[in-house]
Structures are given as C-alpha cells and as structure tokens.
Design brief:
The chain has about 300 residues and is an all-alpha fold. The protein has a domain at about 15-115 and about 140-220: ABC transporter involved in vitamin B12 uptake, BtuC (Orthogonal Bundle), CATH 1.10.3470. Helices cover about 70% and strands about 5% of the residues. The chain has a two-stranded antiparallel sheet.
C-alpha cells in the first residue's frame, strides 16, 4: 500500500505543478498548450545545471528562471503579437522536443553515454511524527519540492479567489473588455500569468529529474504536459480541483508501474498507456459538463 501511495505522490506532483500553471494561464484567458515543452525544457535545464554545478538547488533555480523566460516569451507571442494560442503552443512543444533531443545527442550520446545523471543530494525531507503513521506516513517522507507543491495549492487558491489580484486575473479571463475599461491592464496581467505558468511548468519538469529519476533521458516528459491540461479541465480551473485530479492521474501512473513490476499477463505497453486511457475517458465523461473561462483562447485587440 505504501509503495503505491508513494508512487502516486511522485507521479502526481509534476502533473499538479504543471496543472497549477495551466489554471493560472487559463484563468487569465490564455490557453497554454506549451506546458509539455516547458516541462521538457525544465527537465533538461535542471539536469544540466545540477550535473554542471553539482547540486539540485542549481537545477531548481535554472529551471525556474528558464521557465519564467519561456513562459513570458509564449505570452508575448500569443497575447502581445496575437498568435494563435493552439498553434503556437504545439509549435513550441515540437521545438522544445527537437532542441532537447539535439542537445542530448551532442552533449551526451557523442560522449558515449545514454543518459545525463544528476548528483544525489537531499532526496527526501522527513516530517517528524507524521512519517511514523502507518499507511499515510509516506506522505511525510518526500522530496522538499513535493512539500512546496502541497503549499502552492492553498496559496494559489487564496490568491485567486480571495484577493484583488485574483479578481483582476479572473476578470481578464471572463470579460477582458470590461476589465480593461475599469483600468486593468489586460496585457500585463496575462503576461504575468504566463510567466508564472512557465515557472510552474519548468519546475514540474525539474521535479521529475531532481526528485524522481535523477537523470535526463530523451523525451522524458512523454505527454505529461498534455495530461496537465486535462487535469485543469477536470479540476474545473480550480487549484483544489486540480489537486484531486492530479491524485487520480498520479494513481493511474502508479498502478501501471506496479502492475508491470508484478508481471501481470498484460502487454507492458498497455499498462504504460493507462494514464492516457484514463485521460481520454475522463475528458469524454466530464468534458461536456464544464465551461472554460469565457475569454480563453480568444485574441484581443485592446492593445496599442
């Protein structure tokens, strides 16, 4: 039981981080399809920085900074230049995959290696007392980035629904013209939202490297950015709902790995595809029952 729960947390945390970034972007009216590319770039940069500078904190900060830069770039192209948000996001994902694959081949495979390893640091941080509780104690024995993610959920929820910042953010996603008329700078709000979304997407990729597999492999993200978008929808554009959905998808990853490890007489490829099957079924069942922010994906011509 504890193994499954631990695997659920490890698989669910990067999905939740990326989904929180998606919630912030979409609540502002921007459909951030580029979460997959942001995660992939965050994974690469964190692995390179940790291997180069010998510490996971370097990987964390590099992923944060690069995520912010690329999130802002995506925001400027889609909002400032009014690029099609779906096309730009997909193109960015393809570009990120190509760039990381090229760097992987040039820097790693030509050196005779198959992966870029990350030095081992303080993998987990134990919370005294809670870690000793049978069954759920594993939740208190996780990497420090997992605790950071736990904390992000209530903080983002509070900022989004209980502060003026959240009111302006949601106004930009629901009625941008009205928000602009009341003095809200829609361009600035959306660029800020995309920057934060980029940070969370980059850190999601960094978590996979620094807290889980400890090395960079070709296409290590493998569709998790797209699953994060599904989590945003299933969570009804709410950080708390996203956390619940992330647990479900994390459990599907954990179940697939556990069944594969136990030599269940089912094709391994089918077990690894379990999270994507769950994604399709979940969207098919609940997708029609929820409505996105009114302005999501719509280009605006408010900016000079």
């Amino acid at each position: 039981m504890s193994d499954v729960l631990n695997a659920t947390v490890v698989a669910g945390v990067p999905l939740l981080l990326a989904a929180l970034g998606g919630v912030i972007a979409q609540r502002s009216g921007v459909l951030n399809i580029g979460l997959e590319g942001l995660m992939l770039l965050g994974a690469w940069v964190s692995a390179w920085a940790a291997a180069t500078f010998g510490g996971e904190l370097a990987g964390f900060w590099f992923a944060l900074l690069f995520g912010a830069a690329f999130g802002l770039l995506l925001g400027w192209i889609t909002v400032g230049l009014r690029g099609d948000q779906v096309v730009v996001g997909i193109a960015f994902n393809i570009l990120a995959l190509g760039a990381t694959s090229y760097l992987f081949d040039v820097l790693i495979r030509r050196g005779g290696l198959e992966a870029m390893s990350v030095p081992r640091g303080s993998i987990t941080q134990r919370i005294p007392g809670l870690a000793a509780i049978p069954g759920i104690g594993v939740l208190a024995d996780q990497h420090w980035m997992a605790y950071m993610t736990y904390l992000c959920v209530p903080v983002i929820w509070y900022l989004m629904f209980r502060t003026g910042i959240g009111v302006r953010l949601r106004a930009c996603g629901e009625y941008a013209e009205g928000a602009q008329a009341t003095g809200v700078n829609v361009l600035r709000v959306r660029l800020a939202a995309m920057t934060v979304s980029g940070i969370l997407g980059g850190l999601a990729g960094a978590y996979m490297i620094l807290a889980d597999i400890r090395l960079f492999l070709h296409d290590v993200v493998r569709g998790r950015g797209y699953i994060a978008i599904a989590i945003v929808i299933l969570g009804r554009w709410n950080p708390a709902g996203g956390a619940v959905a992330a647990v479900i998808f994390g459990a599907s990853y954990a179940l697939g790995f556990q069944l594969q490890a136990r030599d269940i007489p089912v094709a391994g490829e089918l077990l690894l595809a379990l999270p994507y099957i769950v994604t399709i079924l979940a969207i098919a069942v609940s997708g029609r029952k929820v409505l996105p922010p009114r302005e999501e994906g719509r280009p605006l011509y408010l900016f000079k």
